[in-house]
Specification:
heterotrimer, A alpha/beta (558), B mainly alpha (296), C mainly alpha (342), A: 558 residues, alpha/beta, Rossmann fold, six-stranded mixed beta sheet, 20 strands, B: 296 residues, mainly alpha, MetI-like fold, 69% helix
Chain lengths: 558, 296, 342
């Protein structure tokens, strides 16, 4: 008998008498001890599936037909109370966002103790408080949190993202459940931390003999953590099979597209961007930036966000700046844009010294930016045409020229003309990013800063947006400063890359050089942590020892 | 099964509704808001067409009818008559005029001023923010009623002075609210993008940030209408409002109070009038808040 | 780690001092510049020009404005607001005499607001969109929309018809001797001196004024608590605890209560100014004889020294209340204590 079996599940959402079907005849099976991945892009219904299993669907959801069986018993016909009792004992979940998963005004220990106390109550066990604390300490050590006492006394905001993710896993393990549901674990974290977390989950699954349902959009994660794969798209399971079959011999075009959309890290299909021989457009010489926070009491805090960075960005190149959160890459970009002055050092853009500019603002014709989050980069109250109108109007164009140019811009980013009248909420994430690119182009800049422009998009959409950017660069002769933490994307998209760690530049060169022979141990650790989709790529990654890794993990474990 | 391609059923594309249509659907689905809207509209109509609606239009003035002095509610005077025999219902209907005049006067000044200050504080930050929020916080510390009383007694207790006194403090609430929203909107990428595109501060304030504050401002303004009516009634109850014989809900309650508990209708009808108007604006504001899904 | 909470508190105290300073300047300007001649206003039109001139000199009105302001401010810092223009006694003495009555009323009102408003708001949130919620929301709205003076009058009217023995005016029965206690608060002094009749009578007298004063606050707190709870119920951490099997009621009453009481407390602080304002009306209706009644009298009689003192003392009340609330919020929310305070 399968541990979990879903048969022909149909779920719909209704709002204001509108009904949308989100799951269509979904069937899925997890055997005892099996590791199953459910993969899909935004809106595929993968999270709705896990919510149906866990009975945490929102109020406007309606399970129309189908069964969800746990050890042969239908869950959907059980009462809420009976289903509650299964949680924590039989199945546990690891959530996606480790910060919002904790109540900010209670300590981590309070959360852990309460969960354990109620789990004991349901299991009919009696344990003293001291026993509970000992048990919690054991579990915390198991998830590699070295100082359980400190962790328990901390408030959620006092721990790092990686530590919180570990605590979440500890919560899930509190009662040796039979199955672990992992909903995009580590997605919100840095690559190296994410890698650690995935390894931890994998180890635990083998060690404890758990079944695992891994819900993710990342094929690399799937390869690491699953034996059997279900591919979902728009509420339908389009394909399923053992891991090797899905990766090596996909049956549907959709899965094939999904796999092909992933930029390769190593191998024959890797693309090398041409290197420009022109003079640099942007020059950074020994640039540092220090932030100072003044306190009413005690001394001021100084944060050295960027330390002694020197970069040349040749005209017509795509210069990649890689690094994890807090590495200073965004600060560098803001200084290049002229939105922030450097504490020391010199920045020149197109031969102009930025420090000589009035209040640090540079001419909009020099640099523009495309932001990471498509949700906040467009004003929700303004149409596409109104958004594109702003740079044109302030460049002094008259109304007819502006209308003409708006049409041209839409055409440049491959958007139909009638989209001009739409509001941002009527656009998809990829379309919003295209408009953001069009807005950047409208000012006719020499340099465009791309601040992780595709990290919020699905891989298939990312592929098309990246193709558009490449096309624009060659057609319009633009220079890009590309900021990202996605190394496999940078390998294929950049002509030069520089890697930053805690405000310092640790390595730079062409991607071919850097990836073939990473010099700095941090670069090696970073590359090694990238989830890849083939064994060949895995083998080509640099080998990093545990000791080296620990050196650069930003306090993800205690 | 062929190894090349398997057809995938294409599910229905999600229907995207326009923002306006969504808002209307939400509004229509909310009976509270509809009742509130109805109540507000009746109050507005009463005020606008008082001379045609009131059973005794001339009782709004200096009429004396001693025969009906303190007349109890009857078919002739549905809500009874006051100490000089005037029809209370007619006076309540006319009383809405003064209340609404106060609302327009106070909010007409307080909302634009508060919104403008809040916008500037939220967008410019730095010293501007410090000064405006600091000043707002000082003004919030002054009890508005005491301020109105002080102004009323120092100058003279008229409707205009009451309006000035209330407006002097009322803007603080709007400044606080708009500041909060504007500050979070100003931190969004699209504001920075507009700045990088060369947009002027004026453009950013009025075209980028303000449209995102309109929902909160309109909800707050609707709710405030109720509080201004309430506040005005309190002032005129204390004798700082319109001069007699102009009908005013607060002073009618004060007049009627002298003859409690026997002639209860002298208090109850104007009280119901106040209650009806404030409840209407409150229900409408509450419905709008749900509709726009904003925190006010 | 810096002791950011201490820093946060210090910032607030500096801010509150600034509030009082600016408030003093405003009320000073209002009192000295706007009305023309305060002495003439105090004496009335019947007084002769010499009498008025004498008073002007006595009040120091002949000095330049900055000198007058500094005199007013340094007096205020020492608790000296000059003498009443009407009674001739020190303004501070008169205020201290009536302050306990209002303090007692306001404290009981605040207690009532929190004790009634918070649980009802939570109840509404727990049963949101059900009939309990609808009824409670309507009740809170009635509370918010009814002006305090109307509630006061309606309560009196109700008592007149149905509770004919219930005392409606003043703080205490006339035939009881008021205990000479240290606080001036009848309930506490009564308890301290063991005169339970006094306590009972004081409570009886307090019931209606406090209810009239509290009603709108109860409504506000209910509303804010409800929306804060609903907002927090949507949060991921609620889902986390639930999906790990912590029962609903524990999640609501332990985890969310603490998180959701920050917003209503903040509102309570802000509403304090209008609470003091409403106390003026309610005290008048119930002939309470407190600070507010005194203030209303001073305002009506154009006793400018007293008016200035009344405004300053109200401002101080507001500032103190908000300081206490800030400390309470800091105790509730570790983010204020641990992270960067603003």
């Amino acid at each position: 008998m399968a541990l979990l079996e879903i048969n022909d599940l149909n779920v719909s959402f209704s709002s204001y008498s509108q009904r949308t079907q989100v799951l269509r005849d979904v069937s899925l099976k997890i055997e005892q001890g099996q590791r199953v991945a459910l993969i899909g892009e935004t809106g595929s219904g993968k999270s709705v599936t896990s919510k149906t299993i866990l009975n945490t669907l929102p109020g406007n959801a309606n399970v129309e037909s189908g069964q969800v069986s746990w050890r042969g018993e239908d869950l959907l016909s059980k009462s809420d109370g009976e289903r509650e009792r299964l949680k924590g004992i039989e199945m546990s979940v690891v959530m996606q966002d480790p910060l919002s998963s904790f109540n900010p005004v209670f300590t981590i220990g309070r959360h852990l103790e309460d969960v354990l106390y109620w789990a004991d109550r349901r299991a009919g066990k009696r344990r003293s408080r001291a026993d509970r604390v000992t048990h919690i300490h054991d579990v915390l050590r198991k998830v590699q949190l070295g100082d359980p006492e400190r962790v328990m006394a901390s408030y959620p905001a006092q721990l790092s993202g990686g530590m919180r993710q570990r605590v979440l896993i500890a919560l899930a393990l509190m009662n040796r459940p039979a199955m672990l549901i992992a909903d995009e674990p580590g997605t919100a974290l840095d690559v190296t931390t994410q890698d650690e977390i995935l390894r931890l989950i994998n180890d635990l699954v083998t060690e404890v003999g758990l079944s695992l349902l891994m819900i993710t959009h990342n094929l690399g994660v799937v390869r690491m953590t699953a034996d059997y794969v279900y591919v979902m798209r728009k509420g339908v399971i389009v394909e399923h099979g053992p891991l090797e079959q899905i990766f090596d011999n996909p049956r549907t075009d959709y899965t094939r597209e999904l796999i092909n959309a992933i930029p390769p890290l190593y191998g024959a299909s890797v693309k090398d961007q041409p290197v420009s021989s022109e003079a640099p457009l942007v020059k950074l010489e020994g640039v540092s930036k220090t932030f100072t926070r003044r306190h009413l009491l005690g001394a001021s805090d100084h944060t050295h966000a960027v330390r002694d960075v020197s970069i040349d960005i040749p005209r017509g190149e795509i210069f990649g700046l890689a690094g994890e959160s807090g590495s200073g890459k965004t600060t560098v970009a803001r200084m290049v844009m002229g939105m922030m002055g450097a504490t020391s050092g010199k920045i020149t853009v197109d031969g102009m010294d930025l420090s000589a500019q009035k209040d640090g603002r540079i001419d909009r014709k020099l640099a523009q930016i495309v932001y990471q989050n498509p949700g906040t980069s467009l004003n929700p109250k303004r149409t596409v045409a109104q958004t594109l109108d702003v740079p044109l109007r302030f460049a002094g164009l008259d109304a007819t020229d502006r209308a003409k140019r708006t049409d041209e811009l839409l055409e440049l980013v491959n958007m139909p003309r009638h989209f001009a009248a739409r509001y941002p909420h009527e656009l998809s994430g990829g379309q919003k990013q295209r408009i953001a690119i069009a807005r950047a182009l409208a000012a006719d800049p020499k340099l465009i800063v791309l601040d992780e422009p595709t990290s919020a998009l699905d891989v298939s959409v990312q592929k098309r947006v990246i193709a558009l950017l490449e096309e624009l660069r060659s057609d319009l002769g633009l220079t890009f400063l590309f900021i990202s933490h996605d190394l496999s994307l940078m390998r294929n998209f950049c002509s030069h890359i520089a890697i930053m760690l805690r405000g310092e530049l640790v390595e730079q060169g062409t991607p071919a050089q850097v990836f073939a022979d990473p010099k700095h141990p941090y670069t090696r650790a970073l590359i090694a942590a990238v989830p890849v989709i083939s064994t060949e790529e895995e083998a080509a990654k640099p080998i990093v020892t545990q000791a080296e890794k620990q050196k650069f993990l930003v306090s993800s474990a205690a | 099964m062929s190894a090349t391609s398997v057809s995938i059923p294409e599910p229905d594309a999600p229907v995207i509704l326009s923002a306006r249509r969504m808002a209307w659907l939400r509004f229509r689905a909310n009976p509270v808001a509809l009742i509130g809207a109805f109540m507000v509209i009746t109050v507005l109509l009463c005020a606008a067409f008082a001379p045609w609606i009131a059973p005794y239009p001339d009782h709004a003035g200096n009429v004396i009818d001693f025969a009906n002095r303190h007349a109890a509610p009857s078919s002739e005077h549905w809500a009874g008559a006051d100490k000089v025999g005037r029809d209370i219902l007619s006076r309540v209907i006319f009383g809405f005029r003064v209340s609404l005049l106060l609302v327009v006067g106070v909010l007409g000044v307080a909302v634009p001023v508060g919104a403008a200050l809040g916008l500037c504080a939220g967008y410019f930050g730095g010293r501007t923010e410090f000064l405006i929020t600091g000043f707002t916080n000082v003004m919030l510390a002054i009890p508005p009623l005491i301020m109105a009383l002080a102004v009323g007694s120092v100058l003279s207790p008229t409707l205009i002075n009451a309006m000035i006194a209330i407006a002097m403090l009322w803007w603080t609430w709007h400044a606080r609210l708009v500041y909060r929203v504007a500050k979070s909107v100003a931190a969004e990428d699209f504001v920075e993008a507009a700045r990088l595109a060369g947009a002027t501060h004026w453009h950013i304030l009025t075209k980028e940030i303000l449209p995102n504050c309109i929902a909160v401002i309109s909800v707050k303004t609707t709710l405030d209408a109720a509080f201004v009516i309430l506040f005005g009634a309190t002032l005129s109850f204390l004798g700082l409002g319109v001069r007699p014989p102009t009908p005013d809900l607060g002073s009618m309650v004060a007049d009627g109070r002298q003859f409690l508990p026997e002639m209860w209708w002298g208090v109850l009808t104007p009280a119901l009038g106040i209650f009806y108007a404030t409840l209407g604006f409150n229900l409408l504001g509450d419905g709008l808040r749900d509709m726009f899904d904003v925190e006010v | 780690m810096h002791s950011t909470f201490l820093e946060f508190l210090l910032r607030r105290i500096v801010g509150f001092a600034a509030v009082l300073l600016v408030l003093s300047l405003m009320i000073f300007l209002l009192a000295r510049v706007v009305p023309g001649d305060p002495a003439r206003m105090a004496m009335g039109p019947a007084a002769s020009e010499e009498q008025v001139q004498d008073l002007r000199e006595e009040m120091g009105l002949e000095d330049p404005l900055p000198t007058q302001y500094i005199r007013f401010l340094s007096g205020a810092v020492h608790g000296d607001f000059g003498t009443s223009l009407i009674s001739g006694r020190p303004v501070t003495d008169e205020i201290m005499r009536v302050l306990p009555a209002t303090l007692e009323l306001v404290l009981v009102t605040l207690l009532l607001m929190v004790v009634v408003g918070l649980p009802l708001g939570m109840m509404a949130a727990r049963h949101r969109n059900g009939w309990v919620d609808t009824v409670l929301r309507l009740l809170s709205m009635v509370g918010v929309t009814m002006p305090a003076f109307l509630v006061a009058i309606l309560l009196q009217l109700f008592a007149a018809y149905y509770l004919s023995d219930w005392p409606l005016l003043g703080r205490i029965d006339r035939d009881l001797t008021v205990p000479d206690g240290p606080t001036g608060l009848l309930i506490i002094d009564g308890l301290l001196s063991g005169q339970f009749a006094v306590v009972l009578s004081a409570l009886q007298h307090l019931a209606f004024p406090a209810l009239a004063l509290a009603l709108s606050g109860i409504g506000q707190i209910m509303r804010i608590t409800r929306s804060a709870m609903i907002e927090n119920l949507r949060r991921d951490h609620v889902q986390t605890l639930r999906s790990f099997g912590v029962p609903d009621r524990v999640v609501t009453f332990r985890y969310l209560l603490k998180l959701s009481s920050v917003a209503p407390l903040t509102i309570l602080g802000l509403e304090f100014a209008s609470l003091i304002g409403n106390a003026f009306v309610v005290e008048m209706v119930f002939v309470w004889g407190g600070f507010a009644s005194h203030g209303l009298e001073s305002i009506m009689q154009n006793d400018l020294n007293a008016v200035m003192a009344v405004v300053m003392v109200s401002g101080m009340f507001f500032v103190l209340a908000n300081l206490v609330i800030d400390i309470a919020i800091g105790a509730l929310d570790p983010r204020l204590r641990l992270k960067e305070g603003r």
